Amino acid sequence: xxxxxxxxxxxxxxxxxxxxxxxxxxxxxxxxxxxxxxxxxxxxxxxxxxxxxxxxxxxxxxxxxxxxxxxxxxxxxxxxxxxxxxxxxxxxxxxxxxxxxxxxxxxxxxxxxxxxxxxxxxxxxxxxxxxxxxxxxxxxxxxxxxxxxxxxxxxxxxxxxxxxxxxxxxxxxxxxxxxxxxxxxxxxxxxxxxxxxxxxxxxxxxxxxxxxxxxxxxxxxxxxxxxxxxxxxxxxxxxxxxxxxxxxxxxxxxxxxxxxxxxxxxxxxxxxxxxxxxxxxxxxxxxxxxxxxxxxxxxxxxxxxxxxxxxxxxxxxxxxxxxxxxxx
Length: 328
Known about the structure:
The protein is an alpha+beta fold. It is built from 10 helices and 10 strands. A 4-stranded antiparallel beta sheet has the order 1-2-4-3, with helices on one face. Strands 5-8-10-9 form a 4-stranded antiparallel beta sheet, sandwiched between helices. A two-stranded antiparallel sheet has the order 6-7.
């Protein structure tokens, strides 16, 4: 039986939903909704089908990764509230709602997990600006590997040959995506309310920087748009992959949690990050992202990390739009 003290207050629910809503997502689509469990001792995490991007993400993989990132933010916020977060993924099976249930009825253990990451939830942003030619410390990389591993995901920092291979695949995918009118129309529909980004006309931006919305010319070799100011990107970006052994919805949700766990750690360490999404959008370029020497596996994301300026804040849905307090 749940005690009255275990029930989440309105303030608790607001804080949790606000934290969850700050997660990264494809096109900044924010495809999630949160609902208190019937006894109000936890939260259900639902996919919001109205926020889907079917042309780019027909199987919902990116949507589930985004929901997983929101789920990890809920876990961090729960620790901040002094509650332990017991997570069940896909309790009703694949394709059914909710996508996850978070039981928050128990107090957090003596050592508060993720508690020190709570400030990073609001500070984390995608940075698509040039980074400094300064290596990410090996100690931080080791932390990222351990953090992703705790979520059942493999984080691999790429060596030079791997970076060049991934950049070549990104460039190939970008060219192929540029020829897809349906994807172009969908991208523009999501950006229609943002006529400029950081003062740069939307028409000047590279059209395929999916959740990033920034020209990728510094990495792919594509010429800059004439109206876009030239910028010097780092000579060779520091890239990492997040991969799983299997490729189902639970794996995608785990990837999102690993992504956000790594990203919040990076933010806490003063690092910046952004996602290169192009190559994972096309099945054959996504398959070629994997390192054959590592054996079978499924690359879910490519993450760029480094030292540089913070990214601009992106608009967020109001808590009232993502927190469903209706009974039943």
